[in-house]
Amino acid sequence: MSIEFDNNLPIYIQIMNYIKKEIITGKLQSGDKIPSVRELASLLQINPNTVQRTFQELEREEIVETKRGLGRYVTSEESKIMSIKKEMAGDLIQHFITEMKELGFQEQDILSIVSDAFRTGEFNGRKS
Question: b/e for 85-107, b at 16 or more Cβ within 10 A?
Fold first, then answer.
């Protein structure tokens, strides 16, 4: 596991996003055990309190659950995993639309560009 941290976003949020992405891409599956606070802190070379905060937030969002004496596990609720996936997709779409509007594109232009990219499999000569 390696994460390149962005100085503009709290580290615990970046770790949360990383773990969420690992879950929705299937690299971490429902019921999988996640690393302990010490393991992850050592691996990422960050303060264990930061990892602890990450895990507390993931538990608050019911993405991971603690099994007393056994560790933390990815939720077994598929609806929760789908919810995370939709939330992350919404964030990407919102960012994309905002950036496209800042470039001066209107809704129909954006839809046409995206549609063409899907149809041809490339955009500006680059394969997607």
Answer: eeeeeeeeeeeeeeebeeeeeee
